[in-house]
Amino acid sequence: MNPLQVLTDFFGYNKFRGSQEAVITAVLQGHDSIALMPTGAGKSVCYQVPAMVVSGLTLVISPLIALMKDQVDALNGLGIPAAFINSTQSVSEQRFISEQVLQGKVKLLCVAPERLFSGSNGWNGFLQKANLSLVAVDEAHCVSQWGHDFRPEYLKIGMLREAFPDIPFLALTATADPQTRKDIAEKLLLKDPLWFISSFDRPNISYQVALRSDSFQKLMGFLSGRSEDSGIIYCLSRKSVEDTAEKLAGLGFSALPYHAGLEKEVRDRHQDLFIKDEVKIMVATIAFGMGIDKSNVRFVVHMNMPQSIESYYQETGRAGRDGLPSEALLFYSYGDSVTLTRMLENADSPEYVEVAKAKLAKMVQFCQLNSCRRRYLLTYFGEKPSEDCGNCDVCFRAGKQLDATVPAQMFLSAVVRLGESFGMGYVILVLRGSASAKIQGAHKSLSVFGIGKSQSEDYWKKLGNALIREGYLVSVGDPYPVLSLSPLAWDKLKSKEKIQLALESDEFRQGLVGEDSYDKGLFEKLKNLRFSLARKLGVPPYLVFSDATLVEMAVHYPEDAMAFRRIHGVGQLKAERFGDDFLRLIRNYIIENQLKPKKPMPQPIKKAAKSAPAGTVSETLRFFERGLDLEGIAQERALSPKTVEGHLVDLIEQGKIPVGSFLTVDEVDEILGEYRKQDTGFLKPLKEFFGEKYSYFELKVALAHHAYSKRTGQ
Ligand code: ADP
Ligand code: ZN
Questions:
Q1: Which is deepest, 411, 580, 700, 706, by most CB within 10 Å?
Q2: Does 41 sit in the ligand 1 pocket, CB within 6 Å?
Q3: Are the CB atoms for 173 and 212 separated by under 8 Å?
Q4: DSSP state for residue 37 in the 8-state scheme
Q5: What is the span of the domain harbouring residue 120?
């Protein structure tokens, strides 16, 4: 199998991201390589995909024992035979796994570094016998004394390098300072390694710093409206962790504490509840997070300033690994730097104190910035960003304002039409054309009724708040505040001037998810289904599907197995395991809500995988119309027949080629009859039923025709 095929079949992604492909190519060509990528960029794919391409064993060295089981579970869930060996297992378990490895039943084996050199060191012999073909060193910065996670065992990896001179080593890390980089290459004894340095930008994370006065009030404001989101709140001391968690829980938030002073059992339980989405907020010291690979963390709050930009970046980096918009909020007070400096001065090594103080000063500077925060972070890590980000608090304030003229006019008109006598909630119901019984009859015939349907309630709330903040709307009255227009707003309306609003990250969010944002109702249902499946299987929900994958379903409404398989993050195995449940839910949702699919499906994987040269399908159509058959087109276009088949199936689905070119009416009926009878939504059982009678291509043709007629009602 080639790497792309592994990516699509097992992971369900249709293209490589960033430097993944380059790294994988280097590895497969046998080079030693070093990949520096920020958290969430997809480092693991860089060795997981080669593991399935090369013939022998891929060894993954990782210091995070807690993470191994998750990673291995996730891989097995994708159909990749993986295992781990570490000290949490009994001797007989370890022996069992070793045997599996020797029998070639394991493609990817995770171990902690100490394992490699423990005991009689029979490991090299074992690895020889296991046909070792690739070594991935995860968290490679642990080899450097300069880093904050130095692990002496990592220094011994060099010995493994020498014992296996002909096998490629791949070192991966998300930590970037120049000294550590140098150490990685030298201390691991890598041979002329190729460097792959990705940008450390995490564009989906929005950075914000706020002064710490009234921090708890500010925190409440931040958390309200995020009750469905997972997040981490970091506090400096165990005591403040406990206090904050207790206060939040007392106010009805789903929050639990985590710090090293808690019983291990309690800690593990809290962490587990968080990972499984059963608890939304983890209030923690920085002891929490190292071993966490939860992709849908939507926010990270620091109640105090971290000690260095590196720590800050690593901790905030735990947000938004799934690529969806996420928030990093830091509360800062000058007192923090005084406290931290004092703590530092107790350390015994003077050199360490010097380095640490310098790092602290950089962190203070970050908090006090009057310029783009992302720019500062990226510059710190050696990049040269060319422009401000527009997605941090400084950019928001600095008038990186968006043109909100149209929605603002809608909002203001609605307030006027309602006689300036209603509150925000009611105005939004009217804008969205709500069917709520609260709406007075006369208001349903207003011209503004329902003009804001396409945006969510949340969006309008944020816009309304921005209008208040910027002095366009006045909200007075207690306990039922009523909205009215300020003179400024009247001026703007009369002069038809543009209305610019400094939209906070939340409104920005909408833009990032895409202007047609997803169906929130469906998304919630999908999440519930995911939750109950995960519970049944005893795994964290994100192992079933990531949030990003569910969001895509809530955009595209896949109705059959083929469409489902095209959703990002749906691989072969997961489609087979979970397809039925999710498809049933989506179909019911469509019926209940009388929806027609509103967006065309993403392009089939086959096309996208070839980076979809636009027009290649229509090119096939032209040849077809000139009378060439499948083979003929493949030859003429120097494409594989499989690719051309894919084009033809697409064209049938689009109604551009009649199904009659490939099948008779009776044949179509026969195939579709059986398809309905089986009601699995999958091709494989259909093929098994018909055996040699129909090829996969012919079955796909019939189903494509079916999809076309269903869509057009023909
Ligand atoms: P890292 O180890 O760099 O923090 P991960 O390997 O955990 O990142 O990947 C982060 C997320 O991105 C995971 O959910 C992963 O499945 C996803 N991902 C990785 N590669 C791709 C890709 N090519 N396309 C889409 N998603 C990807
Ligand atoms: Zn910025």
A1: 411
A2: yes
A3: no
A4: -
A5: 3-197
